[in-house]
Amino acid sequence: MSLAERELPVELERRIFEIAAQSNSMFIPTLLLVAHRVKTWLEPMLYSVVVFSDPIDGHVSFDPVRFGSAIQSQTISEHVKNLFTPYENFPLLDLDLILASCSAVQNLVLFPNQSDLLPFLSTMPLRRLSTTLTDVFPATGVDFMHPLFSCLTHLELMDTLTNAVWEEWKGLTLIPNLTHLAFLIEKSLAIFQGMLAACPALQVLVSLHWGFKGISYEGIGLEPLSQDTRFVCMPAPPLSADWQIGARGGDDFWVRAEKFVAQRVSGQVDRGTFVLQKQ
Length: 279
Known about the structure:
The chain has 279 residues and is α/β, with parallel strands linked by helices. It has one domain. The chain has 13 helices and eight strands. It has an eight-stranded parallel β-sheet, sandwiched between helices. β3, α8 and β4 form a beta-alpha-beta unit. The N terminus is likely disordered.
Protein backbone atom coordinates (compact mmCIF):
# COMPACT_ATOMS: atom_id res chain seq x y z
CA MET A 1 0.00 0.00 0.00
CA SER A 2 1.41 3.38 -1.02
CA LEU A 3 1.72 6.38 1.34
CA ALA A 4 -1.00 8.19 -0.62
CA GLU A 5 -3.37 5.25 -0.12
CA ARG A 6 -2.73 5.28 3.65
CA GLU A 7 -3.57 8.99 4.06
CA LEU A 8 -6.96 9.96 5.47
CA PRO A 9 -9.28 12.22 3.48
CA VAL A 10 -8.66 15.82 4.54
CA GLU A 11 -12.27 16.24 5.71
CA LEU A 12 -12.00 13.21 8.00
CA GLU A 13 -8.58 14.26 9.28
CA ARG A 14 -9.92 17.70 10.13
CA ARG A 15 -12.93 16.24 11.91
CA ILE A 16 -10.72 14.03 14.06
CA PHE A 17 -8.60 16.99 15.14
CA GLU A 18 -11.70 19.11 15.83
CA ILE A 19 -13.26 16.41 18.00
CA ALA A 20 -10.03 16.16 20.01
CA ALA A 21 -9.92 19.93 20.41
CA GLN A 22 -13.57 20.19 21.44
CA SER A 23 -13.21 17.49 24.06
CA ASN A 24 -10.29 19.25 25.72
CA SER A 25 -9.01 22.62 24.53
CA MET A 26 -5.87 22.08 26.61
CA PHE A 27 -4.74 19.78 23.78
CA ILE A 28 -4.94 22.55 21.18
CA PRO A 29 -1.59 24.32 21.77
CA THR A 30 0.20 21.00 21.19
CA LEU A 31 -1.97 20.06 18.22
CA LEU A 32 -1.16 23.39 16.56
CA LEU A 33 2.40 22.14 16.15
CA VAL A 34 1.40 19.12 14.04
CA ALA A 35 1.08 20.92 10.71
CA HIS A 36 0.13 24.28 9.28
CA ARG A 37 -3.26 22.98 8.14
CA VAL A 38 -4.02 21.79 11.68
CA LYS A 39 -3.08 25.23 13.01
CA THR A 40 -5.50 26.79 10.53
CA TRP A 41 -8.30 24.47 11.63
CA LEU A 42 -7.83 24.70 15.40
CA GLU A 43 -6.61 28.22 16.13
CA PRO A 44 -10.16 29.65 15.82
CA MET A 45 -11.34 27.06 18.36
CA LEU A 46 -8.54 27.89 20.80
CA TYR A 47 -9.35 31.60 20.88
CA SER A 48 -13.12 31.33 20.56
CA VAL A 49 -13.74 31.32 24.34
CA VAL A 50 -11.34 33.42 26.43
CA VAL A 51 -11.08 33.40 30.22
CA PHE A 52 -8.11 34.41 32.35
CA SER A 53 -8.87 32.32 35.43
CA ASP A 54 -11.04 29.43 36.64
CA PRO A 55 -11.54 27.56 33.36
CA ILE A 56 -14.03 24.70 33.40
CA ASP A 57 -12.55 21.20 33.36
CA GLY A 58 -10.69 20.32 30.18
CA HIS A 59 -10.28 23.86 28.93
CA VAL A 60 -7.65 26.57 28.98
CA SER A 61 -7.26 29.92 30.64
CA PHE A 62 -5.07 32.53 29.01
CA ASP A 63 -2.03 34.29 30.38
CA PRO A 64 -2.80 38.03 30.03
CA VAL A 65 0.63 38.98 28.67
CA ARG A 66 0.78 36.24 26.07
CA PHE A 67 -2.83 36.84 25.08
CA GLY A 68 -2.19 40.57 24.72
CA SER A 69 0.71 39.77 22.41
CA ALA A 70 -1.22 37.18 20.38
CA ILE A 71 -4.15 39.47 19.62
CA GLN A 72 -1.85 41.96 17.95
CA SER A 73 -2.37 39.63 15.02
CA GLN A 74 -5.67 40.59 13.41
CA THR A 75 -6.19 36.98 12.30
CA ILE A 76 -6.08 35.80 15.91
CA SER A 77 -8.05 38.70 17.39
CA GLU A 78 -10.92 38.02 14.99
CA HIS A 79 -11.24 34.51 16.44
CA VAL A 80 -12.21 35.88 19.88
CA LYS A 81 -16.01 35.58 19.99
CA ASN A 82 -16.61 34.95 23.71
CA LEU A 83 -14.74 36.99 26.34
CA PHE A 84 -14.98 36.94 30.14
CA THR A 85 -13.12 39.81 31.81
CA PRO A 86 -12.02 39.27 35.44
CA TYR A 87 -14.14 40.35 38.41
CA GLU A 88 -11.40 42.61 39.73
CA ASN A 89 -8.28 44.29 38.40
CA PHE A 90 -6.16 41.41 37.14
CA PRO A 91 -2.36 41.70 37.25
CA LEU A 92 -0.91 42.54 33.84
CA LEU A 93 -4.33 42.57 32.16
CA ASP A 94 -4.55 45.50 29.75
CA LEU A 95 -8.31 45.74 29.31
CA ASP A 96 -8.02 48.67 26.91
CA LEU A 97 -5.73 46.69 24.63
CA ILE A 98 -7.91 43.60 24.75
CA LEU A 99 -11.18 45.38 24.03
CA ALA A 100 -9.58 47.51 21.30
CA SER A 101 -8.11 44.47 19.56
CA CYS A 102 -10.96 41.98 19.97
CA SER A 103 -13.60 43.81 17.97
CA ALA A 104 -15.36 40.60 16.85
CA VAL A 105 -16.62 39.68 20.34
CA GLN A 106 -20.28 38.64 20.37
CA ASN A 107 -20.59 37.36 23.95
CA LEU A 108 -19.03 39.49 26.70
CA VAL A 109 -18.92 39.51 30.48
CA LEU A 110 -17.58 42.89 31.49
CA PHE A 111 -16.66 44.21 34.93
CA PRO A 112 -15.74 47.83 34.13
CA ASN A 113 -12.88 49.26 36.12
CA GLN A 114 -12.63 52.45 34.12
CA SER A 115 -14.98 54.88 32.45
CA ASP A 116 -13.80 55.07 28.86
CA LEU A 117 -14.76 51.66 27.46
CA LEU A 118 -17.72 52.75 25.33
CA PRO A 119 -15.66 53.42 22.18
CA PHE A 120 -14.44 49.82 22.24
CA LEU A 121 -17.89 48.35 22.87
CA SER A 122 -19.34 50.37 19.99
CA THR A 123 -17.31 48.39 17.47
CA MET A 124 -18.32 44.95 18.74
CA PRO A 125 -21.22 42.97 17.22
CA LEU A 126 -22.43 42.12 20.74
CA ARG A 127 -25.29 39.67 20.99
CA ARG A 128 -24.85 38.71 24.64
CA LEU A 129 -23.71 40.99 27.44
CA SER A 130 -23.38 40.57 31.20
CA THR A 131 -22.40 43.73 33.03
CA THR A 132 -23.36 46.60 35.33
CA LEU A 133 -24.72 49.24 32.96
CA THR A 134 -24.45 52.05 35.46
CA ASP A 135 -20.68 51.37 35.56
CA VAL A 136 -20.42 51.27 31.76
CA PHE A 137 -22.20 54.66 31.62
CA PRO A 138 -20.91 56.25 34.84
CA ALA A 139 -21.23 59.90 33.95
CA THR A 140 -24.23 60.42 31.66
CA GLY A 141 -26.70 57.75 32.71
CA VAL A 142 -27.44 54.71 30.57
CA ASP A 143 -27.97 55.57 26.91
CA PHE A 144 -30.13 52.73 25.63
CA MET A 145 -29.79 54.07 22.09
CA HIS A 146 -26.03 53.53 22.14
CA PRO A 147 -24.64 51.35 19.31
CA LEU A 148 -23.48 48.68 21.77
CA PHE A 149 -27.15 47.62 22.13
CA SER A 150 -27.92 47.41 18.39
CA CYS A 151 -27.42 43.64 17.95
CA LEU A 152 -28.00 42.57 21.55
CA THR A 153 -30.42 39.69 22.17
CA HIS A 154 -29.35 38.53 25.67
CA LEU A 155 -28.67 41.02 28.48
CA GLU A 156 -27.78 40.08 32.07
CA LEU A 157 -27.67 43.05 34.44
CA MET A 158 -25.80 43.22 37.74
CA ASP A 159 -27.04 46.71 38.58
CA THR A 160 -28.38 47.66 41.99
CA LEU A 161 -32.15 48.16 41.82
CA THR A 162 -32.62 49.41 45.38
CA ASN A 163 -34.99 52.39 45.13
CA ALA A 164 -34.92 52.09 41.32
CA VAL A 165 -38.06 53.11 39.45
CA TRP A 166 -39.47 52.07 36.09
CA GLU A 167 -38.75 55.50 34.57
CA GLU A 168 -35.02 54.89 35.01
CA TRP A 169 -35.09 51.55 33.21
CA LYS A 170 -37.85 51.83 30.63
CA GLY A 171 -35.13 52.57 28.07
CA LEU A 172 -34.58 48.80 28.01
CA THR A 173 -37.66 48.66 25.79
CA LEU A 174 -35.69 50.57 23.13
CA ILE A 175 -33.16 47.77 22.61
CA PRO A 176 -34.32 46.60 19.17
CA ASN A 177 -33.47 42.87 19.24
CA LEU A 178 -33.72 42.08 22.95
CA THR A 179 -35.37 38.70 23.60
CA HIS A 180 -33.69 37.59 26.85
CA LEU A 181 -33.25 39.74 29.95
CA ALA A 182 -31.93 38.78 33.39
CA PHE A 183 -31.25 40.61 36.62
CA LEU A 184 -28.63 39.21 38.96
CA ILE A 185 -29.04 39.55 42.74
CA GLU A 186 -31.51 42.45 42.72
CA LYS A 187 -35.25 42.25 42.09
CA SER A 188 -37.85 44.90 41.29
CA LEU A 189 -41.51 44.07 40.81
CA ALA A 190 -42.19 47.41 39.09
CA ILE A 191 -39.36 47.04 36.57
CA PHE A 192 -40.19 43.42 35.81
CA GLN A 193 -43.85 44.30 35.31
CA GLY A 194 -42.92 47.21 33.08
CA MET A 195 -40.69 45.09 30.85
CA LEU A 196 -43.20 42.26 30.46
CA ALA A 197 -45.99 44.70 29.62
CA ALA A 198 -44.00 46.86 27.22
CA CYS A 199 -41.96 44.19 25.40
CA PRO A 200 -44.08 41.56 23.65
CA ALA A 201 -40.94 40.37 21.81
CA LEU A 202 -39.29 39.49 25.13
CA GLN A 203 -39.16 35.69 25.38
CA VAL A 204 -37.59 35.25 28.81
CA LEU A 205 -37.18 37.51 31.84
CA VAL A 206 -35.10 35.91 34.59
CA SER A 207 -34.65 36.99 38.17
CA LEU A 208 -31.50 35.32 39.51
CA HIS A 209 -30.99 35.09 43.25
CA TRP A 210 -28.20 33.91 45.51
CA GLY A 211 -28.90 31.46 48.29
CA PHE A 212 -32.36 30.26 47.26
CA LYS A 213 -31.43 26.67 46.56
CA GLY A 214 -33.32 24.28 48.76
CA ILE A 215 -35.46 26.85 50.55
CA SER A 216 -38.97 28.19 50.08
CA TYR A 217 -39.64 30.93 47.55
CA GLU A 218 -42.91 31.98 49.13
CA GLY A 219 -43.23 35.64 49.93
CA ILE A 220 -40.37 36.88 47.76
CA GLY A 221 -42.60 39.66 46.41
CA LEU A 222 -42.75 38.55 42.78
CA GLU A 223 -45.93 36.47 42.93
CA PRO A 224 -47.96 38.98 40.82
CA LEU A 225 -45.78 37.94 37.86
CA SER A 226 -46.61 34.26 38.16
CA GLN A 227 -49.17 34.18 35.33
CA ASP A 228 -46.76 35.51 32.73
CA THR A 229 -45.03 32.36 31.52
CA ARG A 230 -42.01 34.35 30.35
CA PHE A 231 -41.01 35.21 33.90
CA VAL A 232 -38.65 32.82 35.69
CA CYS A 233 -37.12 33.07 39.13
CA MET A 234 -34.15 30.77 39.72
CA PRO A 235 -31.00 30.41 41.83
CA ALA A 236 -27.97 32.17 40.42
CA PRO A 237 -25.46 29.61 39.15
CA PRO A 238 -21.69 30.17 39.48
CA LEU A 239 -21.28 32.97 36.97
CA SER A 240 -18.00 32.05 35.31
CA ALA A 241 -18.61 28.32 35.02
CA ASP A 242 -22.19 28.72 33.77
CA TRP A 243 -21.10 31.31 31.20
CA GLN A 244 -18.32 29.06 29.91
CA ILE A 245 -20.74 26.15 29.56
CA GLY A 246 -23.06 28.32 27.48
CA ALA A 247 -20.21 29.78 25.40
CA ARG A 248 -19.16 26.23 24.53
CA GLY A 249 -22.64 25.21 23.44
CA GLY A 250 -23.96 23.68 26.66
CA ASP A 251 -27.08 24.40 28.72
CA ASP A 252 -26.49 27.61 30.64
CA PHE A 253 -29.10 29.38 32.76
CA TRP A 254 -30.64 30.96 29.63
CA VAL A 255 -31.29 27.56 28.09
CA ARG A 256 -32.65 26.14 31.34
CA ALA A 257 -35.00 29.11 31.66
CA GLU A 258 -36.15 28.69 28.05
CA LYS A 259 -36.94 25.03 28.64
CA PHE A 260 -38.87 25.90 31.81
CA VAL A 261 -40.92 28.52 29.94
CA ALA A 262 -41.71 25.95 27.23
CA GLN A 263 -42.86 23.45 29.88
CA ARG A 264 -45.20 26.03 31.41
CA VAL A 265 -46.63 26.96 28.01
CA SER A 266 -47.18 23.30 27.08
CA GLY A 267 -48.77 22.43 30.42
CA GLN A 268 -46.00 20.08 31.58
CA VAL A 269 -45.52 22.49 34.48
CA ASP A 270 -48.34 24.49 36.03
CA ARG A 271 -48.51 27.88 34.32
CA GLY A 272 -48.53 29.65 37.67
CA THR A 273 -45.24 28.06 38.77
CA PHE A 274 -42.59 30.66 38.08
CA VAL A 275 -39.80 29.34 40.29
CA LEU A 276 -37.24 26.96 38.78
CA GLN A 277 -35.37 25.38 41.66
CA LYS A 278 -33.72 22.43 39.92
CA GLN A 279 -30.32 23.25 38.40
